[in-house]
Amino acid sequence: MRAITIKEPGGPEVLTLAEVPDPLPGEGEVLVEVAATAVNRADVLQRQGFYNPPPGASPYPGLECSGRIAALGAGVSGWAVGDEVCALLSGGGYAEKVAVPAGQLLPVPKGVGLVDAAALPEVTATVWSNVFQAVHLRPGETLLLHGGSSGIGTMGIQLGKAIGARVAVTAGSAEKLEACRALGADVLINYREQDFVEALGPDGADVILDVMGAKYLDRNLDALAVNGRLVIIGMQGGVQAELNIAKLMAKRAAIVSTSLRARPLDEKAAIVAEVREHVWPLIDNGRVRPIIDTVLPLADAAEAHRLMESSTHIGKILLRA
Ligand SMILES: NC(=O)c1ccc[n+]([C@@H]2O[C@H](COP(=O)([O-])OP(=O)(O)OC[C@H]3O[C@@H](n4cnc5c(N)ncnc54)[C@H](OP(=O)(O)O)[C@@H]3O)[C@@H](O)[C@H]2O)c1
Q: pTM value?
């Protein structure tokens, strides 16, 4: 099969389409013939040599895919050859075939095309496992999403609104904020022009989904409501910061941080099962949809990475196998 390989750590140009051996489905896995994969920020870090795949994962990038089941490994039940699926991966999505633990498979939702379904697994699993499982956003609460027009943000807005939360977003341009408003965001904050703590007002946010890490830690604490929960999933603004424990204590607040890729298989399967139970019906009935900026051929993976690094996209960037 063909896959995108990383010749050596570096810029987008190191992504090279090459002939590689087909993967074989192990026990409890299925082989998926890939229709499409999606680009995630983690793929950029992996390309640069800063984020190696966990032990046992495919060496090729790609944390999600859609496609058709081509073969079943031993012990797999509930799925059949030919089923149209999408899947959360530990790697290997930038390829024509990938072996996937059966617990990480989801059916393609009603009304979503096979290619477009590749936009769903990573963002639904990340938003669900953090905003809902980890910090229990409730109806009527305020959710602040940093990077509201990102892949994660566009799903966070839709799921936040679907459960009846008030959603605030930050983004770096009026065009991106308009896209967030169209998805249902209630409070629009241009982080280049406004201070998000002031823009939120004195009530603050009950839950903050943060992708900036160190750079925003102190201001995120300022922005939290009493009993607020800050969940950090990105480090785009660095990894080391000083924590003011007095602020945390005064607000009886909590800070949580998670990474999806390295979680054990049983935890990923449990997240995917909850996503299927709680998020898939919202997609099936059209309340929530994948937001896709661009679809490029797999061979143009370098171009897709340049697009992500330029941060001009809104929603997801897909690669069609
Ligand atoms: N921990 C996990 O398990 C996990 C899983 C998935 C994703 N993530 C993380 O989630 C983040 C989003 O991922 P993605 O794939 O959706 O990437 P993406 O579409 O490229 O989004 C990156 C976002 O960061 C925003 N941003 C940059 N500087 C900002 C600032 N100073 N203030 C507010 N927002 C800022 C960008 O907003 P503008 O373009 O408007 O500047 C953009 O929306 C990444 O950091 C990724 O690593 C973590």
A: 0.98
